[in-house]
Sequence to fold (447 residues):
Amino acid sequence: MDARTVVAYDRPVPRYTSYPTAAQFGPSVGPAEDAAWLAEVGSRAATFYLHVPFCRQLCFYCACHTVAMNRQDTLDDHAAALKSELELVARFAPEVVVGSVQWGGGTPSQLGAARLLSVGRRLSALFDIRSGREMSMEVDPRFCNEALADAMAALGVTRVSLGVQDFDVAVQQAINRLQLPEETAAALQLLRRVGIRHFNIDLVHGLPLQTLETLSSTLDAAIALQPDRFAVFGYAHVPWMKPRQKLIDSATLPDATARAAMADLVERRLLAAGYVKVGLDHYARPGDSLARAAVAHRLRRNFQGYVPDEQPWVVGIGASAISCLPRGYTQNVAEAGAYIRAVMQGSRPTARGIAWSAADRLRGDIINELMCHFEVDLADVCRRHGALIQPLLSDTTTLPALIGDGLAALDGTRLSVTERGRPLVRSVCAAFDRHYTGGEGRHACGI
Fold:
């Protein structure tokens, strides 16, 4: 990508893990709406996302809703609250089927083996769980022991995402995450020994002190671990939102041109290693379920990234967890203490959300297609939503510039993101975002 394009499009844009994005969530959606929308899921399948907002220690780069927490009583209280929230969900949606389960955070394993088993068993007791379902869990390899591995096997975990970010010592020191490659390899070996077969490795480019050379060495070490998938995210530097990022010296961050070169290096190296690219920032072995979903046009994008789930609904459990329900998005209160208090009082802990309008549903489908498959038949989407294509195109005022710059192409009613434009697919999506103003301070830059 030429330097002019890099500079022109290095501006804040949403990651489009949802549409509308979380920036549009508000207090007009609360517990009553959440309960009513949950009931409308009926007997359909949904992904259950269980969020644990705790880590052993904090990494400076992280923008997740998490705090360092090692107090056993607080961990006990949170596990009890997760079970109580599951019981509340069962009250409003007793027939919902668990299509898949995702444990995220923070670091879910920070709950410890016994608490994880307790929560998992309550989930199984309350709901019909689809046979052959996937259960994934995020794990910090530095704190993976035999008790945790045995508990994960007993829970039925089928896939583990191992956080790495970067293996270079100077980069690790800058982000407060010292992690030897040998620790990650040992965790993989331990988890494979208890019968878990599928693994993702999470990396980040654009970190402080990171260079093309250090990133290349990290890729060497990560590829040698032979995971099924990689998720390689661009670092989002938003210190005005996440104060811990102020501990990172912004002068040590790669500029837009360097970040673009890093993204290109990641793609070239992982493709050469036999992975296929899935969407914007995921890579998978050709036989992996994510790669197959991309080929079959069944890929979805949600707050956990790209998923091969056919079901659109997500039931979020835990502090700050987001649900995707038939009428819109709801989000639980973010602060762990407030979450625990709300649930223990028998109330849905919903703090905010947004109800979809007809325009949101239409534009959300377009954005999902672009983020997942880099193309969309606008006429077909409009037809399914009972909308006219011409008013939609007239309202996408930035689309002509994107086409003129060679980042997108419009052939009749089929819009595609060009090979050159794929690293900037979020900017193409922003052309259809009726909420986006271009100046929101909560989004990271587009490269």
In short: Residues 36 and 92 are 8 Å apart (CA to CA). The longest strand covers residues 97-105. The mean pLDDT is 94. The chain has two domains: 21-355, 358-430.
